[in-house]
Amino acid sequence: MEKHELVIIGAGPAGLSAAIYGKRAGLDVLVLERGAGGGQITQTDEVENYPGILHATGQELAEMFRSHALKFGTEIRRVDSSKVELRDGKKILITKKAKDTIEIEADAVIVATGAHFRRLGCEGEAEHIGQGVSFCAICDGAFFEGYDVAVVGGGNTAVEEACYLTKFASKVYIIHRRDEFRADKAAVDKALANPKIVPVYDTVVEKIEGNGMVENLVIRNVKTNEASNLDVAGVFMFVGQEPDSECVKGVVETAKEGWIITDESMATSVEGIFAAGDVRRKHLRQVITAASDGAVAAMSASSYISGLRH
Fold first, then answer.
1. CATH of residue 11
2. How, if at all, do strands 234-237 and 29-33 pair?
3. Residue 39's pLDDT band (boundaries 50, 70, 90)?
4. Annotated catalytic residue: which of 28, 45, 107, 139?
5. Residue 14 belongs to what domain range?
């Protein structure tokens, strides 16, 4: 069976930071990534709050992380899926790619699988995914050149992606169930100064309608209970996140929603398994906190592996 000292699941900022610190600590590191890697940051058009980087796209920053990890000789392997099992006290990763299944034993594991955007759950949403309902402005924004669109949410992601969409759309409605946005003041000020952006406060989306493509939203004001229609060609959902923690489901302790519970050293409830980045239970999910988590997790894993040796 293939064996490595440290296996990291996920090649976003947390996973790649862990790889950099793990390699610098002299560990044999393998990073398993699904898809193109880079994490959710690759869906962000503009990053201006990562210290030392005055401005970069999410894709550019992700590539910087990747190049840095590769500089130290990190092995990054693409797989379709990964799952962690415990067998006789050993940590075994079951990876699949196409029809091949490979089992890997690891002295320590860092789960850095991140999170994904939550669905709104309203009527018509599932039927229109890919037909006007989107969870990625960078991926799909250009399809709405000259059309009116809506963004649902009130956090940083919603407000920042609404600004990005103004590059294409004629008008961008930001629908939020509260009377003010939760995003940073700088992001809110920038959005509200854009003449293409129209805030729709105290409002929820109850139904998405359209014959094939999205044509209309049925919205309701939560204070007046008044329902109305909003004619848009697309709607972008940014209403929170859910953890991608399936690879350790039933193995480590998680919160009710699936977020992995760790201590300050990023250790989970299972000795030798650590978690870093957006997948763990934490207050702030940003690139800088993911990178910090990765560094801490790698050094904790290094100490754990050193203890095994001695």
1. 3.50.50.60
2. unpaired
3. confident
4. 139
5. 2-116+241-309
Helix axes 185-192, 156-165, angle to 10 degrees: 30
Active site residue 122: no
User: Pick from 209, 237, 265: which residue ends a domain?
Assistant: 237
C-alpha span between 30 and 106 (Å, rounded)? 9
CA 36 – CA 32 distance, rounded (Å): 11
Active-site residue, from 140, 244, 278, 293: 140
Predicted structure pTM score: 0.82
Write out pLDDT tens, residues 193-250. Answer: 999 999 999 999 999 999 999 999 999 999 999 999 999 999 999 998 899 999 999 9
- Do 214 and 295 have their domain in common? no
Around 134, how many Cα atoms within 13 Å sit in the side-chain half-sphere? 25
Contact predicate 157/284, CB 8 Å: no
Active site residue 247: no
* Closest of 293, 273, 275 to residue 285, by C-alpha: 293
- Select which of 136, 148, 184, 202 is catalytic: 136
Active site residue 136: yes
Residue 304 has what pLDDT? 98
